Amino acid sequence: MTVLIVLIVVVLLLALLGVGLGVKIVKQYEQGVLFRLGRVLGEREPGLHMIIPLVDVLHRASLRIVTMPIQSQGIITRDNVSVDVSAVAYFRVVDAVKSVVAIENVYAAIDQIAQTTLRKVVGQHTLDETLSETDTINLDIREILDVTTVEWGVQVTLVELKDIQLPDSMKRAMARQAEAEREKRAKIINAEGESMAAAALGDASDIMMAHPLALQLRNLQSLVEIGVDKNTTVVFPAPLMSTIGELGSFLAREAAAATPLATPRATPTAGPLATQPVPAAPPVPRTRPLPPGKPNGTANPVSVVKANRGDLPVQGARRVNSP
Fold it and tell me: The dihedral of CA 13, 16, 19, 23: what is its sign?
């Protein structure tokens, strides 16, 4: 009787242990894959499921999106610049059977294939393209990963470049380039401002030429601006053109007044007599009209008879040949 009771208790314990081993719960975000004697029987949806202990094995695969950081990779770009690029990948299991049967460890496999794909894609671009066309690089990496992981029952939803580390020399070169670009923009803006200011001044000058009173009002405004600091000196500006004209007239008058007048020249004498003025220029020879019957060339011109050396000069003596 005692042995029977012990057997019944053992059977009950084994039954309870079998029930405990045979009851499996699949959560809402999971999907089960049932193996019986090593063969796949199918998928099991979320809920309570009974399996045969020691005969059936139930593997659970999570269907949630997994965030996987991709380690920083030392990459040489197409223009031979060494950079360190890190990224992050997002994927999820879409086929639980393939994720369990086709590959041993889907997470480790995706991590390795993501690193190699990152080096491959970034190495095909230049540094400028890597920095500016990150969306294109992300899309290329995702497409390559999708082609590879679709056989594993995994879908890559997103890949993003997280960080790009540049060498210090390249950072300095890029800083100089950015500084030069800023200086170029500043000079262009300054030149455009000067052009607009010159155009505005030209329009203002045209208006002042058409309205002379406007210039006087501007002069009064300048006086008001000067007198803001309560200065004791008041400047009255004069029109520039009239000032230049008056200065030219003054210089012309001064030049005319400074020109010396012509003075008579004196001839030294041999005696004590005073010198007499001599005409500045010799007289012009004059000819008389020829009488009838005289040939040309017989007329004697009027000439000035000079005295001999030592005598007084005789002025006005004339010798006329009678006809």
Answer: negative
Tokens at 263, concatenated: 């003075």
Contact 80, 63 (CB under 8 A): no
Query: Vertex 69, ends 65 and 73: CA angle to 5°?
Result: 145
Residues 6 or more apart whose CB falls under 8 angstroms from that of 44 comprise 24, 26, 31, 32, 33, 34, 58
Distance, CA of 27 to CA of 46 (rounded, Å): 5
CB contact set of 160 (below 8 Å; sequence gap of 6+): 87, 88, 134, 138
How far is the C-alpha of 317 from the C-alpha of 307, rounded, in Å?
Answer: 10
Nearby residues of 230 by Cβ (< 8 Å), 6 or more positions away: none
Which of 20-24, 238-242, 302-306 tops mean pLDDT?
Answer: 20-24
Residues of the chain with pLDDT > 70, as a percent, come to: 73
187 phi-psi bin (left φ>0, alpha ψ -120 to 50, beta other): alpha
Nearest CA-CA partner of 117 in 157, 151, 144, 84: 144
What ranges make up the beta strands (E) of the chain?
A: 23-26, 30-36, 39-44, 47-50, 56-62, 66-76, 82-93, 154-165
Q: What is residue 305's predicted lDDT score, i.e. its pLDDT?
A: 38
Distance CA 258, CA 261 (A): 9
Q: Are 153 and 97 in contact (CB under 8 A)?
A: yes
